[in-house]
Amino acid sequence: MKRTRFEETFCPVARSLNIIGDWWSLLIVRDALAGVTRFGEFQKNLGIAKNMLTARLKLLVDEGILRTQPASDGSAWQEYVLTEKGRSLQTVLVALSQWGQEWLFDKGEPASVLVDNHTHRPLQKLALRAADGRELQPQDVKLRIANT
């Protein structure tokens, strides 16, 4: 079955899911944010088949989320590093992590938690805010078509 593509839709969520909508892509970005740069490290951490990892890395490079560069240790290998576009996905991953922590773990069940590297304290829960700083609820937000 051919996968539906959403390149022409007005919906930024649908367009985003064209690129990062499978779990492997977001897990690759998660690992890259944690400092993973080498193909073998991604493969070992994720347990993903080499052909699938190759395809996902190619897509992420083609879409400008990752870029390749010569290995920092001077070896013949290449490294995958996040671009600004890729680093900006951190907020998406933080939101998913916080949602999962709240809704997918039993009370007392061990789970990883994101912490501020400076204070070592958990991150404040993300919230939607209006331009004037008010916290918004789902009923306070509506969709409209805008020219960007």
- Per CATH, the class reads Mainly Alpha
Describe the sheet with the most strands: 2 strands, antiparallel
Count of strand segments = 2
**Largest beta sheet: strand ordering:** 1-2
Structural category: mainly alpha
**Judging from the principal axes of the Cα atoms, what is the shape?**
globular
- CATH-scheme architecture: Orthogonal Bundle
Along the chain, the helix and strand elements come as HHHHEEHH
The CATH superfamily appears as Winged helix-like DNA-binding domain superfamily/Winged helix DNA-binding domain
The CATH topology is what? Arc Repressor Mutant, subunit A
Beta-sheet strand percentage?
A: 5-15%
Output the number of helix runs: 6
Average pLDDT taken over every residue = 92
Protein name: Transcriptional regulator
InterPro entries: HTH_HxlR, WH-like_DNA-bd_sf, WH_DNA-bd_sf
GO molecular function, one term: DNA binding
Keywords: DNA-binding, Transcription, Transcription regulation
Summarize the structure in short.
By secondary structure, the chain is mainly α. It has one domain (12-139): Arc Repressor Mutant, subunit A, CATH 1.10.10. The chain has helices spanning 12-20, 23-33, 39-46, 50-62, 84-87, 90-103; strands at 66-70, 78-82.
Overview of this protein structure:
With 148 residues, the protein is mainly alpha-helical. It has one domain: Orthogonal Bundle (Arc Repressor Mutant, subunit A), CATH 1.10.10. The chain has six helices and two strands, in the order ααααββαα. It has helices spanning 12-20, 23-33, 39-46, 50-62, 84-87, 90-103, and strands at residues 66-70, 78-82. The chain has a two-stranded antiparallel sheet with strand order 1-2. β1 (66-70) and β2 form a beta hairpin. The longest helix has 14 residues, at 90-103. The chain starts with 11 loop residues before the first helix and ends in a 45-residue tail after the last helix. The mean pLDDT is 92.
